[in-house]
Amino acid sequence: MVEITYIGWITGPALSLLLGFGVLMVLAGIFWPKYGLIALSRKSNLNKQRVWLEDALKFLFDCEYKKTACNLNSIAGNLHISTDKTARLLNRLRTMGLITMEDEANLQLTDAGRSYALRIIRVHRIWERYLADETGIDQMDWHGEADLQEHQLSPSAANQLAARMGNPVFDPHGDPIPTIEGAMPVHRGQPLSSLEEGTVAQIVHLEDEPYTIYEQLVALGLYPGMQVYVMDKTDGKITFAADGEECILTTLFAASITVETIQSKEKIREKLDLLSSLAIGESAEIAGLSPNMRGQQRRRLMDLGFVPGTAIRAELYSASGDPVGYRILGTTVGIRKQQADLIFIKRIKNEAS
Amino acid sequence: METSNLTNKDNEILSLANNLRWDLGVNFHDTVIESIYEDASRIAQRTVAQEGDPAKHFDLKIDRIVTSRWLGFPIMFLLLALVFWLTVSGANYPSGLLADLFIGKLYPLLKQFAANIGTPAWLSGVLIDGAYLAVAWVVSVMLPPMAIFFPLFTLLEDFGYLPRVAFNMDSLFRKAGAHGKQALTLSMGFGCNAAGVIATRVIDSPRERLIAIITNNFSLCNGRWPTQILIATIFIGGAVPSYLAGIVSAGAVVGIAVLGIGFSLAVSWGLSKSILRGEASAFSLELPPYRPPRIWQTLYTSLIDRTIFVLWRAIVFALPAGILIWVVANVHIHGISIAEHFIDWSNPFAVIFGLNGVILLAYIIAIPANEIVIPTVLMLTVLQTGMSGVGAGAGVMFDTASIQGTEEILRAGGWTLLTGINLMLFSLLHNPCSTTIYTIFKETHSWKWTLVSTFLPIVLGLIVCFFTTQIWLLITS
């Protein structure tokens, strides 16, 4: 007979239940994603001094690239540190020969400083590209992840990663990726907020900072490559059609979108229907895949024939209503609504035929 | 750097090319791919004449029925229940025959033969009582259900019905962050987890495939059904009036299986939100045309690819485990066997979880197959309690002729209703058998995911058993 005995310090089920909950809480505290000890220690492993130093160089380069003003206060604001600390940081940068500083408003990168900044930016943008194309990380988390990774990944590891992805030249926000030698194209485009009514342009870049503005742009479904047509500009608000879909933004938010005006008389894109709007039995023609459909998913659908011009018919609902089976190129393929929302179609006008 | 062997001229050309790529803009790659596809489809449209597709009309008719809102799920449950019923009821008889042959007839002959040629007792113990008996046990309980289950399952697959199951179930699995095809690998797991893990190859999205692999162990496999039924009959059936015993114990076993599905979905959800959040994911589900199943081919491939394959891996692991089981029960240190040392040492720890040292040791040394857990438990209990007149000796796994016999031994070992419930829970929530663990490693090529798949269920099992036990004690005290 096995006796039900307890280790000395457990005296009853109530106490052991409490202890059990305690152990569970400790485990959760260690393993919880994002806020657990493991996740936090990953962040705090970074050398803070180095992170500030590199972030400051990045910011200085960004100002230089966009030809905007840059001073001690704007750096302090960007790095979320006090002006005292920023002043000390700038002194350190100067003694390291990475910047020249005549006074607090006139900061210049030296050649060494510029190439250091470009190395960091290259790693950051390659990593964003990698997250967008090869992983399932949410769009809103790319920038934060890359901000951590840029201080950790060695340039040679980043180069290997880039080579594996076919040496991409743009990050998913439309920013150019500096080459290994540190070359960058001349900054192009202008903020959307500066366009006049009636102008047609193409989005070339979405600024991913600050987070709240970027979140709003993503929620509107904007992405580089979209065609915009400015419809109205009044009272600090701008109304525009992005690939036919009407959007309204304040001028402040619109300034986060960089566009290039389109010279040639390209026809204005109309709003397209989504595959998810097709009822059972209806036919249509694929018009394209949204750029928000990325990586593997995009390749898979393209392999199955989801390319512009292919005929498609909605054929049957599953027992639970989602996914829906579509007939395409002689096969039936089940597609979830989530994906069908990212596939554009043109309805075929003559249903009778 | 990789570019060091390039000349200046080469580098110039490369950087020029890079600059030109910047000018092409962000949509360049897509435009190229799309124009290739457009060209291809234009050529195909011009040159390929497609005649009417007579089979398609018929397909659509079947599809409208098996994926309909009202009939879709009932048809699915009926078909799968039929497959399981055929497996469970059909496997009993051949299993009995094999056990009779290998254990009832061949085993005494081998022992006799070893004694006749003067083999030392320890050697015949290690080889015959240990290795041979473990392998014989695994073969006789594993082979018949698999030889029935896999061909039936493969027939449904070959006919084209299984993709429709995935199609219907996808919305449930989508909410758990998984792929609809996990419904298939989960069902396959009810046959055998190792085969279920191999079956995840049909899921071509990396994240969803890993989820399906890690959670497959929550499908109650063939090897665990008999344990569940036995323990439910003894302890749960025994706790209610006899006219309710049958239905209540059957309900308990089904409840455990359903709990397993619940864990499978919940853990899938948790994984997709935490450690697998970043893995790439892609969904598409092809619904191939129906076709008459090729019966002989199906029989052949399911027997060779699935049954024999899995059985062979199980045998390879059962052999050393059989030796280990014999050794821990027969090698003595300070007068008592290693097994008893471990049992005594782990008992205080095990009772916190409502289990006992015998169960813990049995789950560790019977890792090759869930089928030999109960024989090992019985052997260890007899060893530990020093019961006389039952069993076949230290290190020799055995099964009693009747359920009453098993019950007597377990109750002598201190088992209560609570121990029975915890054993049922732990049998569902513990590490996969070594065959499955090895298969997971082979499929993922990753130590990390193999370890996660192994230890996650144990941790869950211990947590569930702990809270069940302590709440039970709190209520009954």
What's the helix and strand layout?
The complex is a heterodimer of chains A (353) and B (477).
Chain A: H1 13-31, H2 37-44, H3 48-66, H4 72-79, H5 83-95, E1 99-103, E2 106-109, H6 111-134, H7 142-149, H8 155-164, E3 190-191, E4 200-206, H9 211-219, E5 227-234, E6 237-242, E7 245-250, H10 251-254, E8 257-261, E9 273-274, E10 283-289, H11 295-303, E11 311-317, E12 324-328, E13 331-335, H12 337-340, E14 343-347
Helix pairs in contact in A: 3-6, 4-5, 6-7, 6-8
Chain B: H1 8-24, H2 28-47, H3 54-66, H4 72-116, H5 121-159, H6 162-175, H7 182-191, H8 193-199, H9 206-215, H10 225-236, H11 242-273, E1 285-287, H12 295-330, E2 332-333, E3 336-337, H13 338-352, H14 357-365, H15 373-385, H16 403-412, H17 417-428, H18 434-444, H19 447-476
Antiparallel strand pairs in B: 2-3
Helix pairs in contact in B: 4-5, 5-12, 7-8, 8-18, 9-11, 9-19, 10-11, 10-17, 13-14, 14-15, 15-16, 17-19, 18-19
